[in-house]
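User: Structure with KG4, tokens only please.
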Amino acid sequence: MIILSVETSCDETSVAITKDGKIVLSNAVLSQIKIHQPYGGVVPEIASRAHIESMLYMFDKAIKDAGIKVSDIDLVAVTQGPGLIGSLLVGINAATTFAYANQIPLMGVNHLLGHIYAAQIEGEMKFPLLTLLVSGGHTELLLVKDHLDIELLGTTLDDAVGEAYDKVARMLGLGYPGGPVVDRLAHQGEAIYNLPKPFLKNEPFNFSFSGLKSSVLNLVHNMKQRNESFKVEDICASFQESVTEVLVQKTKDAANNLGVKQIVVAGGVAANKGLRTKMKERITDLEILTPSIKYCTDQAAMIGIAAYYQFKKQGALKDYYLKGSSAINFI
Ligand code: KG4
Ligand code: ZN
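Assistant:
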């Protein structure tokens, strides 16, 4: 089954062609990072307009790269949320129009489901599995009992992990997006500062990173006031040590308590080298399935893979786009 998928939930315009919920034939991704960098974060209106400008080109590129014809496509899948409303609408309208014009069934896919199913590109999901989903907007522990049978165990009480990384990077003057830079610098420094590790003992499945973020701010502020010299690399290493310690220990405890067969680590922050290494070092009795770095951050291939399993479970949705599915009905 050949699926064309579209992802425009934030600042990546992406169209992919996947086969049978496993094989990625093409995955065209255009990042808008450079456009948003001067503003220190994603500007929603600018993001929507940039999606519009590159959308048609990305459709062409994905189809060409995959070496297929439009008539080979069995299903069109599109991220329906969560995400920036204007950005989502561009992708949904493009996908709906393409599906309607070519009389191909259409399906809306949850962005977070896509992040989880990115793991299926790398290996075989074994149920029940525990997913640690860490991205710019989400920090979740999920029990995946079977395909599309998912229970939310816990989430963040305040900032998402990626958001905390981006905010710490911003206060250290490291630019946007901060996660990859903090990760790189952390490997060049020493975790010499004793920052809090928010385990939330009475809430084993929940997270909170806003206090840790404030501690970094206070630490830097106090050192500057005292004219103490410090290495940004050491701050990054200390922050990353606290974050990864909490993420890994909570995942390990949850996996042991629930008796799962596998752990999936997914979402943009799953690209973090410190997190990937610590997960593998500390959890040795369970298989850890992590998408390769290019499938951790936002792209359409993960939406195509998730769509395949959603299609198998829900059956054909041949008339979907005819049933008044204006873009707004998706969201
Ligand atoms: O999944 P994603 O691409 O978009 C959302 O759905 O949010 O995740 C983006 C987030 C950003 O906050 C970015 O800073 C973070 O993932 N990120 C990282 C790394 N690479 C991306 N955070 C820590 N270390 C990284 N290597
Ligand atoms: Zn995402």
